[in-house]
Each structure stands twice: as structure tokens, then as C-alpha cells.
Amino acid sequence: MTPKTLAVLALLGLLAACNTVEGVGNDIAGGANMVRSWL
């Protein structure tokens, strides 16, 4: 693999990781809001 290919793959990996973290954060916030509505 060329260094350019590795750089592109690393960038895509970082973007995917950020999206995953954001999704988990939204799931946790949604769960907290649901529990708060029960109370």
C-alpha cells in the first residue's frame, strides 16, 4: 500500500469512529430522556 492509500484509510477510519461515538452518545441521551419522562 502506498502512503497516500494508508492516509485515506486512516481518515475514513477516524470519520467512522467519530460517527459511531456520536451515535452512541445519541442513544444514551435518548435513553436518559425516556427514563426522565417516566419520572
Which keywords apply here?
39 residues, 92% helix, mainly alpha, 1 helix, rod-shaped
Short summary:
The protein has 39 residues and is mainly alpha-helical. The chain has one helix and no strands. The radius of gyration is 17 Å and the shape is rod-shaped.
Explained architecture:
With 39 residues, the chain is mainly alpha-helical. The chain is 92% helix and 0% strand. It contains one helix and no strands. The longest helix is centred in the middle third of the chain and has 36 residues. It starts with a helix and ends with a helix. The mean pLDDT is 79. It comes from Donghicola mangrovi. This is Entericidin EcnA/B family protein.
Instruction: Report the total helices.
Output: 1
Strand tally is: 0
**Rg calc:** 17 Å
Structural class based on helices, strands and sheet pairing: mainly alpha
Q: Sheet bearing the most strands, described?
A: none
Separation, N- and C-terminal Cα atoms: 55 Å
Strand content: under 5%
Oligomer: single chain
Helicity range: over 70%
List unreliable stretches of 5+ residues.
Answer: none
Mean pLDDT: 79
Shape, please?
rod-shaped
N-to-C SSE string, H for helix and E for strand = H
Secondary-structure map with pairings?
Blueprint: H1 3-38
Protein name: Entericidin EcnA/B family protein
